[in-house]
Amino acid sequence: MAEKEQTQQAYPLAPTNGYARSDAEAATADSDELRRQKRKKLLVYIAAFVVFQTAIIVLFSLTVMKVKTPKFRVRSASFTTTFDVQPTDPSFSLNMNAQFGVKNTNFGPYKYDSNTVYFYYNDIQVGSAAVPKSKANFLSTKRFNVAMDLSSANLTSVNTNLASDLNSGVLPLTSKSRLSGKVELMLIFKKKKSVDMSCTMDVRIATRELENVKCK
User: Residues annotated as region Disordered (predicted)?
Assistant: First the structure.
């Protein structure tokens, strides 16, 4: 009898129902589901981060890293000293102080070399202006003034047209030039860019003013 009791104590009876086992399995299943949800959230966060970074890179490439061609133009001019215009004996000799502008819309400075701007009347050169080496800072316009002499000394073959223009009170001129330089981005990348100037303008003889400046 004692042996039977000892045997029963050594080998306790199993639970009469499966509740204990079911609770353990449910807890394990809940833990696995929680881990799966955490992994899903992590994957969603990683995917969102990748999409965000890709969008930033694309936007950066299309804006900051995109190199645009600067613009080089005649902005204005004044005539302060010599202003000799002879409509009857068609000729002119002008001292013009012109203001030029180099507009840079890039996110880095545009460094350009020295150059020359040529002025023409009826496609014949009547003057020139030396452009010094310099730079236009990012998202800004570099303005500078250059004094020059404009003369009709080379216009012997077009005196008829010149007389008509001077008598009308307007001297039409054009300017052309080509500026060469480099746009520097992030202090590392350098992109060569050349700028062509092609401007038309009128000198109003009565008021000694430069008018109707149009540049392409």
Answer: 1-31
Tokens 């077009």 correspond to 158
| Residue 2, phi then psi, degrees to nearest 5 | -65, -40
Query: Mean pLDDT throughout 169-176?
Result: 97
pLDDT in tens, 130-144: 999 999 999 999 999
Question: Is the whole model's pTM more than 0.85, yes or no?
Answer: no
AA letter at 208: R
Mean pLDDT across the stretch 124-129?
Answer: 95
Please, what is the end-to-end C-alpha distance for the chain in angstroms? 118
Q: What is the pLDDT of residue 14?
A: 52
